[in-house]
Each structure stands twice: as C-alpha cells, then as structure tokens.
Amino acid sequence: MPDFSDDFDRIRSFPLWDGPIEIRPLDGGITNKNFVVHRRAGGSVVVRLADDIPDHGILRFNEVAAARAAFAAGLSPEVIAAGPGFLVTRFLNGRPLTSEEVRSPANLPRIVDLLRRCHTDIPKHFRGPALIFWVFQVIRSYAGLLVDDGSRLAPELPRLLAVTEELERTVGPVEIVFGHNDLLPGNLFDDGERLWLLDWDYAGFNTGLFDLANLASNNGFSARDEADLLALYAGAPPAPARLRAFEAMKCASLLREALWSAVSESRSTIDFDYVAYTDGLVAQFETALTAFRG
User: What's the pLDDT score for residue 41?
Assistant: First the structure.
C-alpha cells in the first residue's frame, strides 16, 4: 500500500475546507495522483495533485482552462478550485466505461455526441492561451528525448520517424477543432444517466480525426466499429480518402502512446510497468502499420 501521508497533509492544508474532511485515494492516473475528499457540507470533490510535465507536453494552466471550458460546455464536472500543482473538481458518482462498453452500439452514439461537442463547443468557452496537439510533432519530440536517454528503442527511431513522415503526408490538410486527445476508456465516465468526458491533461487544438483514431486505437475497435464511428461522426459513410487518413492517424496514435511509455520508462517516478506497456503498444502499432500498408 503506497504511503499517501504527505499528500493527505498537503490536501488538508488547502484553504478550501470549512470543517473536518475524509480523504481516500482513487485508482488510476499515471500522470497525477487523485483523491476523493468527503466534506460534511458542500458534497464530495476530487483533488488531482500534479505538476507540469514538459516532456509530455502537459502544462497545467492549459488543463485547468480546458476543464473550466469543458464544464461550461456541459461535458465535464465543475472546477471548484485550482492552484500550483492541484485541481479540485466536483465528485461524480458512477464509474468509467470499459473498452467493451466504449465499443457498444448503445454507447457509441453518446460518445460521438460528446466528441462533437468537445470539438465545437469548448472553443466558445476557453479563455486564455491554448496549446496545440499535433501527434506527428509529439512523436518527433519523444524521439529526441529517447535518443538523449539512450533508450532501448533508439535503434528503431530512424525507421519510426520515416514512418511518421509517411503517415503525416497521408493525413494531409486538416480542419482544426478542440481535441481531448486522450480517449482511454477511463476518461469516459457514466453516472447512470449520462456520459462525461474527464481528464484534460493533453487537451488542445487538433484535428478531430485524431480523437476518432485515438478512441478506436485505445479501445480495440474492429473495422466495422471504425466504419460505424466515422459514419456517426460525419453523418455519412466515410469517403476512401477520409478512411485512409483515419487509418494513418490510428497508426500515429498507437506510435505516440508507445513512445510516451518509452519516455516514461526512464523519466516517470510513478509506480507502473511502463516496459510491458511499451512493448504491447509497439506490437499493436506494427500490426496497424502492416494493415495500413496493405
């Protein structure tokens, strides 16, 4: 059992509480620590303890601004408070979806609705400077860090960077929207009545195609699932060029996640088996790349 005593002391020191509180850790979170704080009055809240992680492009001012805008857009819980290294949001009763539930025909239209609203409504509420998340540049940045670290993947990087250029050319010009950019199943939350979109660490302006590809690659979509996803989002079956760009972006999403994990092998202090995670993602990427090249 991890020792959270220092974290508990820090949370108790926040000038937010009007009486005794109870704190318990939440599972999940591999770029932050999450806790539920039960208050006698005002309901429960979630406290996220996390600093900037420039290696991964995570800057907390952007996360806070995105979370506030997402609440205003009706996608995410209310931000109660924020400060250096912490974010406090309203607690939601419910549970995250599983990958199987993400793929469910009953849930997919609800998820697509969330994504459309994220892409179009958040910019109406976002305040201040915002980041951009361009997966191909993220991959190039990670490659530089892996060379610096003498990563075990360093010998593969020239080939992977050449593939990255190939994928970027295939995607071509894009329409810019506001993306969530981290559609793991745990970031889709069901309170029993509706779905919520959580965790804005990687939020930023992007092409909506990345969120669609990221959702598919993170949740084991079949070819039929992917076709349904694209048709739901666009309101019509995808044209061949759109489908080809989606397949390229799916490869890029998997490669980005694999290199994220490879960088974390040497740079993260969080207790997580990054080596196994990297290896699994590299295998998924190679499978997707083979299918992309047909």
Answer: 77
Nearest Cα residue to 96 out of 268, 7, 206, 219:
219
Question: Are 117 and 44 members of one domain?
Answer: no
The reply to whether 62 and 181 lie within a common domain is: no
What the block records as the tokens of 287 is 């499978």
CB-CB neighbours of 250 under 10 Å = 28
Q: Do residues 282 and 176 both lie within one domain?
A: yes
The whole-angstrom separation of Cα 214 and Cα 221 is 10
Confidence of residue 231 (pLDDT cuts 50, 70, 90): very high
Average pLDDT value over all residues in the chain:
95
pLDDT higher than threshold 90 for residue 29: no
Q: Are both 162 and 47 inside the same structural domain?
A: no
For 152, 181, 189, 233, the CA distances from 278, given in Å and listed in that order, are 11, 19, 25, 30
Q: Quick one: pLDDT band at residue 87, thresholds 50, 70, 90? A: very high
| CATH code where residue 228 lies | 3.90.1200.10
CA-wise closest residue to 226 among 253, 257, 192, 199: 253
Three-class SS of residue 22? strand
Model-level pTM?
Answer: 0.95
In order of 185, 229, 230, 234, the CA distances from 115 in angstroms are 14, 11, 12, 12
The verdict on 59 and 100 lying in the same domain is no
Residue 289 has pLDDT above 70, yes or no: yes
